[in-house]
Input
Amino acid sequence: MTFSKITENRANRFRRALYSWTGEHPREMPWKGERDPYKVWLSEIMLQQTRVEQGMPYFNRFIRRFPDVQALAKASIKQVLKQWEGLGYYSRARNLHETARWIVRSQAGRFPEEYSSILRMKGVGPYTAAAIASFAFGLPHAVLDGNVHRVLSRYFGIDQTMDHRAGKKLFEDLADRLLDKEQPARFNQAIMDFGALCCTPKNPDCTSCYLRNQCFAFKLDRIGQLPPAKKSKPRRIRHFHYFIVADPGGQVVLSRRPAGDVWPGLYEFPKVETDGPQAPKVRPAGVDLPPRAKIGKAVLTDKQVLSHQVVHGYFYLVRMPETPKNQLTQPVDKLNRFPMPGILARSRKFWKELLS
DNA sequence: AAATCGGGGAG
DNA sequence: CTCCCAGATTT
Output
């Protein structure tokens, strides 16, 4: 089945119904109607796999802290990650920062202005490039995100995910056909608003929907089956034993997480990972702890569930007679400046209290 | 094509 | 508990 023969007539009907709905259901967002490519870029990166309500406070804080691309380029990666703390997918922040520096240093502060060059920016894929191209520059590129996929899957009755080449291509072609070439920004905004507010994953509000007369899923009562669910994968279980090592002066040892694992570039305490919940038999590498020193019971345990793993955290308090050498150490009251994974950040007040 | 990369809210 | 969110990148 192909949809390449969607008539301009049908596309027009789709657009009109869409615009009617969004006209009656306004949606306020800080970046709505924004033309400044920096702000559009930031909002789109920030909202990748992130709900609007979750990203909104981060966007506002980020813009206040880094109002333009120059400010972002001037900042350190640590400061940028600090603003990103708790939002997840930290490579987004790193790519954003690297690209900001590239724009300022190699492009004279000039933001890429055509789709192909926007697409070459780190962390920018087909969706984000289309969003920036249309919102910031008014270029006719259709966005294809989870919202659009869901709307089109139901409306046209397409029982496919976008995990495969063929499925992706099918939805791309469809979105391109439907796109309002005269007002690409308006169309892209409308179809995403509609998907987020009306054609929701669960319990869509079909009663208020102006597309339902043409909607395959509505007419055949297949709303619950479209789009097809992706199969969930089992989560990897991990156990992180964190050693909070402090000297009498309140200096605490920190380490930085490597690339190639969760939370790249964020800071944490020296750690030993074990296969199970049992206490580790060894001490964190690199930290000059007495190898046989008793560490006692964990002062805190916590758990963080990610989409692909579950991390159990165990915290041990270790008092050292003097400052550990050859380690990154920081005074307790400066630990706030270090971006940390949620499992550490959440209990910040607790272990700061413990250390003071 | 499949795995990896976070965190949170809805149901 | 499961599902999925203004996806991209690496394997």
In short: The domain at 8-225 of chain A is CATH 1.10.340.30 (Endonuclease III; domain 1). Chain A has two domains: 8-225, 236-355. The longest strand of chain A covers residues 236-246.
